[in-house]
Amino acid sequence: MKFIKKSEEPEIFQQWKSQANENWQPTWDVLRAKEKRQLHQSLLAEQGFICCYCQRQISIEDSHIEHLKPRTRYPDLALEYTNLLASCKGESEEPPPVPVHCGHHKKDWYDEDLLVSPLDENCEQLFTYTELGEIRPISDPQWQKSAETTIDQLGLDIDKLRAMRREAIEAILEGFEDLTESDKHQLIEGFKTTDNEGKYTEFCMVLVYILKQYL
After folding, report:
1. Integer Cα distance of 68 and 74 in angstroms
2. Cβ distance 129 to 2 under 8 Å?
3. pLDDT band at 89 (very low <50, low <70, confident <90, very high)
4. DSSP assignment of 117-161, as one string?
5. Averaged pLDDT score across all residues of the chain
6. What is the model's pTM?
7. 84 by DSSP, 3-state: which?
8. What is the DSSP letter of 67?
9. pLDDT tens digit string along 158-181?
10. Phi-psi region of 194 (alpha: psi -120 to 50; beta: other; left: phi over 0)
């Protein structure tokens, strides 16, 4: 998981909501395509174009707007920008079946005490990874239950994501030990920042965690 620092909501979204009057109230169901697309793009940009939960690279075509606190349970937060994220698009359940993960796996689940939120500054420290692509909860008893539950509720350790993380890890480890200490640190720091297009590397914090084990 990668910490997400929320920015200001897009002006077009703010202006649309400001049109509320005694005869019309903005709701999620009447959010128009123009405002919704701009909102979606804004969420992607502030996340560096990676999924808010699994860190896969995403675009507007293969992601959806996720309500951290589900709008079915928290209708008053349906249009609250601080409650909105961009998550992986749901996979088709038609044959061949593909496991669903992240926002669509989470569905309407939310537990303030058990969900590790990507909006929490310490979220990156609550998970560990193996070179096989596995994600594990931190062993700290204060946080282990929350991290463990989050992994389960978001489907973060399914075979599909393990395989994708493993492939990314294997690719970056090739030749890593041949680098100078300075270059190793520079590479790791590079994964913590976005590129010239404002994008993070896919599974960036996974790679940071693994590479640090080789320092």
Report:
1. 10
2. no
3. confident
4. -TTSTTGGGGEEE-TTS-EEE-S-TTTHHHHHHHHHHHTTTSHHH
5. 94
6. 0.93
7. strand
8. E
9. 999 999 999 999 999 999 999 999
10. beta
